[in-house]
Amino acid sequence: MDAPTSHEITRLLGELNRGNRDAIDMLMPLVYDELRRIAGRHLGHERQDHTLQPTALVHEAFLRMVDQDSCQWQSRLHFLSVAATMMRRVLIDHAKARFRHKRGGPGQQKINIDDMNIAVEERAVEVIAIDEALRKLALLDPLQARVVELRFFGGVSVEETAQILELSEATIKRYTNSARAYLHMAIYRGGKAGA
Amino acid sequence: MTGERWKQLRDLFDEVLEQPVSLRETFLAVRTKGDPQMAGEVRELLASYAESESMLAQPAVKGLEALLQPPAADPDAMVRGGSAARPHDPDATIVAGGGDADLSDTGGMIGRRVGPYRLIKKIGSGGMGSVFVAARDDRQFEQRVAIKIVRPSMNTQQITQRFLQERRVLAGLEHPNIARLLDGGTSSEGLPYLVMEYVEGVTIDRYCEEQRLNVTDRLKLFRTVCDAVHYAHRSLVIHRDIKPVNILVTAEGVPKLLDFGIAKLVGPGTETDAGLTVDTAPMTPEYASPEQVHGDQVTTATDVYALGVMLYRLLTGRSPHRIEKNTSAALFQAIASREPLRPSQAVVAKDAESASNAATREGSPERLSRSLAGDVDVIILTALQKDPARRYASVNALSDDIVAHLDGFPVSAQPDTVTYRANKFIKRHTAGVAMAIGLAAALVMATVTSVYSADQARREKLAAETRFQDVRQLARFILLEFDDELRQGETSARKVLLPKALDYLNKLSVEASSDPGLQREVAEGYLKMGAIQGDLYGPNVGDSQSTRGHYRKALEMAEKLAAANSGSEADAVLAAKSNSMTANLMALGGDRRAALPHYKRALTLLEPFAARNPNGPPAQLQLEVSQRLGCVDYQLGDTPQALANYTRALEIARRLAKASPTNTRAVRSQAAALEGMAEVYTRMGKPAEALPKLTEALAILEGILDNNPTQPLVRHGVATGSRVLGDTLAAAGRHADAVAAFRRALALTEELAKGDPRNRQYQRDIPIALGRLADVLLQTGARAEAHDVTKRALTALWPLVDAAEPQVYDLQQFVWLLVTTPFDGLRSAARALPYAKQLVEMTKGTQPAMLDSLARAYYGVGDRSRAVETERRALALLPPARPGETASALRRELEENLAKFEGAAKPAAP
Question: Is the pTM of this model over 0.90?
């Protein structure tokens, strides 16, 4: 990452610390690109067992993107918070792109069921469904939806989620439990709980 | 749905989830009176919660890594990834499905292509879909597979989910006795399908009949099935639907386990959730376990039970459930509560069935009965225990017993008497017996076996049994004798010994069913275990979740024993103890009203025995229970009852101490009862009556401490006594004396915490002492020190209130300090508010003091109408002031607050 960008991001996080919410909009595209790049690099290697820890990913992005000298403690929490939203967007974009490609793409005839990595596809469907159900939950309680976004998409720990949202850890756990039930109901029981 | 509605729904869901499974429905009914729609929605949430264990368990990116790989030149490369297909086994064997299923090709599926396979014939049909034989026709040779595919009409998301689940489960299983998963995918119509090894064979029950296998051969075949199930368990999969139609035996006699359609994944990651999971999966009635019938948690023990039912059927030809009417209600009734007939008895019933069943097994019913009597009866009945905890601890243990029986060794399920083991031994080693006589039992086993048995496995088995006896002795010692000494000591030492002792209990509980002596021992063991893990009145290691489970087991066993032997003092004491400890835990968790009946039950159990023998163990326990009950009455605001119970405790304690002056427990109990009475008087606004009680109490305690300077429990007692004395002095207006008393309490508590830093009780006592000290310091005008002490109290409380299971008292103090401290820098109603809500929620809105704290917090954040409403709720819970008597101090305080809130609220109203 170029030095000016790193400086820019640090400045934006500083803005955010001072309460300027507009900084989020400017941070997002930068973080999005960087997360994709790092993920690609992690997975581009020859290793067969591809696994990715969102925490590790976000942490690396943070180290690369943010000027560590002038960094404040809250900056990390803000960054985590933004990065979780971006992780969500990166994943959903890729998951949806895959299905667009499959249905309408020129390669349609060539792809056999046999050739597809079905496990990935199942997971992609599930994650897209969770994303959609989470939007419904956000209409009912944006804060609770945010808990799921941080924990599930951002891989943020219970402790840090609690700090970011200024809730107790017990509350984070409770919110996660009922959100899980809600999401499952919305996805598998015909969205009866929809907004 | 509105956001407001969702939040109500969510909060109620949280509350219901905290209840034990058996009480949830009742709890829900009570809480949703007049709102059946709400009840329905909560039920749906609960069902969804139970079905969604794995949903948010992994970060979203898990499993999607392939999507994030940088795009390669070939656009297809991205979707190609690792195919799930495995190399096909050309010899792959076969399936024949469930017999009477509808095999007509209603969907017109025959001849269709699914992926690279062509459907040839329908061989089975189930709830969610059909099974076909299929062939892969793009190869030189035709390879047959079984394809399970969702029926078009059934392609709902839930069914699809089950399919995916089965696939996930099977993908992890590779075992010669489990039908293999070869492939899977989604057909061009969008129907999910699984490709499996095609097993050509017949169901295990038919196979046994057709081959006319005798009991030994049936047991051998069954044992192979156990291997497969055990392997699945080791892979963290519970089958949940074990029955003959799901086990096919090939022409070569190899059994294969099929149909993991409702299997469930378990594992370390899901353990906490599993504890709360109600099983909602479908089941096959005859093979369903009691826990499935009750809708309780399903574990590996569920498969052990189903295996037991199947073995019963294979060996006797009958169902273990004796029912007169063939209805599912009667069947469920039998599963839940009727003990099955011993297999050896079942086969001699005088009917035509017996003769034909015996004919294919051992010839005559009598011969069949003889071969089942003894070991086989015990093995099957152990697997069929109603209580999962009493079954074999694992499928392996069941399998081991069958091997032991087949080899003529003692089975673990048999009551372990010396004569039984000796019989087995003599049968095996007739020549060696002479040598064995006269040697100590353990030595006999080890030496003689090593001489006469070259078989390594057998020798190990005997050694293991001897070890088991050793462990039993050792653990009995740890739990039932040594523990009283450990109680005086450090927490870490006790925690180290726990796993060993728990292991001992679980093993014993399997064997205890037929032996009241052993049952008593096990129940007592569970009590001790619970006490060690979480009894907050004693030194502890703070795990109330497991404690609840242990106490529940103990209570159940003890009440049964007491009911069976109503004249037995030991059983009455054990049942009373179980009730009392259960109640203690409930009271600590905030549910004080639920604790009351358990305390009263304990007193009722003890009464007749204590009357007969006024200085024996029942009287000692009666004293403890009276004391605790007094305390809970006091906390519930019932001062007359509290005083009555404390007075009874004091009488018993004085009597016991007089009869035996060296009985320090009785001596100490006098002090405790006196302190309790003082506390009640203080609450009643009568500090003058409280002070002499307290002074007497402290004198007793300091005397004990002088004699036992190293005992933490005594030090703890003096610390508590000093604190209460401080309270009373403060109430009497003697603030300077109160400061001294609180300082003494604080110093003692800090010493205790330093000596045993992991003890949560001590961690909790520090902020309590600090809070009180701050209060009286303010009264004496020492503001600067009061400020520092308050800050220290808040700092010490912080980790306690944010703990996974915060204690009511800590929350209460935290909230109280935050809303009432006069220091602007420390006071924060906004911070207090969420904790105050949690507090009221935990105590279910039954505690006036908690409601008062919440009202103060509302007032502090400017929500005056809520403050007024909440304070009114608090007041309504207090007993009405009797005419002629002055209102209690609490009532006066609450009324003053209400007036203040109302006064503030009025100008705000239009």
Answer: no
